[in-house]
Amino acid sequence: MHEETIFQQYKPLLFSIAYNMLGTVMDAEDCVQEAFLRWHKACVMDEQGAIRSPKAYLSAIVTNICIDQLRLAKHKHEEYIGVWLPEPVVAANDHVEMAETLSLAFVRLLTNLSPIERAVFLLRQAFDYDYDEIARIVGKSEGNCRQIVHRAQQHLASQRPQQPIPREQHRKLMEEFVQAAVSGNMEGLLKLLAEDIVMYADGGGKVRATLCPVYGRDKVLRGLLGFSSKAPAGLTWRISQVNGRPGMLFTLHEAVFAVLTLEIVDGRVQEIDIIRNPDKLQHIELSAG
């Protein structure tokens, strides 16, 4: 099979690994391209590992590039202004495997893990790699990898988003939420928000956004009503596919203004994620969704 054909077969998986690790679309795409160049060079040099098992070889390259990038970028996250959220992947992208693990809330949670913990956890829990495969990819023993996954599970257990609800139910609740928020319907919002809801807003210091998470129904409600009252004239919204599930795409003057997603548990909104940082929205095409 031709190298390009083989690479295209694994490209969605590779992008998904990189995106979940890094949380940025462009960096994930660059990572996948770099992996292809390295793998192609290895094939030309007749490296048997690259030829016999391209999936394992490419996965190892992508994973280790991501680990290196995360270590180098640690100070950027520490210096980031306000709440950091991943870049949204809007609509169905032909090389993105849309899965529950691509939710903004889940990728945000993964930042609580070290780069090596994130890699091992994702390869095992999200992509179902065997422990012996993971051990070879990250250069650890199988026993060590098992311990890493166990620790990561414990660390994320109380914070991990629930299993996604059916798409149509999510869409219906999303529509009710946005209509209530945009119209300033306090009673409608109260019915939808969980008491222990949390809201994250990422402005990156570039645009106005809350610098810290907002906890509790009353505070979140005030924040949403404040946003509604200050929304610029001409702001429009529509439901789009955001990280594999229904989300909201807000536009203003033919440009993306914000992306909003909800985590819904037992019919109530448990988490709101709002991305306003223009650097994280510039890759989105308005034809998407």
From TrEMBL:
It comes from Ktedonosporobacter rubrisoli. This is RNA polymerase sigma-70 factor. One of its GO terms (biological process) is DNA-templated transcription initiation. One of its GO terms (molecular function) is DNA binding. The lineage of its organism: Bacteria, Bacillati, Chloroflexota, Ktedonobacteria, Ktedonobacterales. Interacts transiently with the RNA polymerase catalytic core formed by RpoA, RpoB, RpoC and RpoZ (2 alpha, 1 beta, 1 beta' and 1 omega subunit) to form the RNA polymerase holoenzyme that can initiate transcription. SUPFAM superfamilies: NTF2-like (SSF54427), Sigma2 domain of RNA polymerase sigma factors (SSF88946), Sigma3 and sigma4 domains of RNA polymerase sigma factors (SSF88659). NCBIfam families: PRK09636.1, sigma70-ECF, SigX4. Pfam families: Sigma70_r2, Sigma70_r4_2. Residues 6-72 form the RNA polymerase sigma-70 region domain. Residues 105-156 form the RNA polymerase sigma factor 70 region 4 type domain.
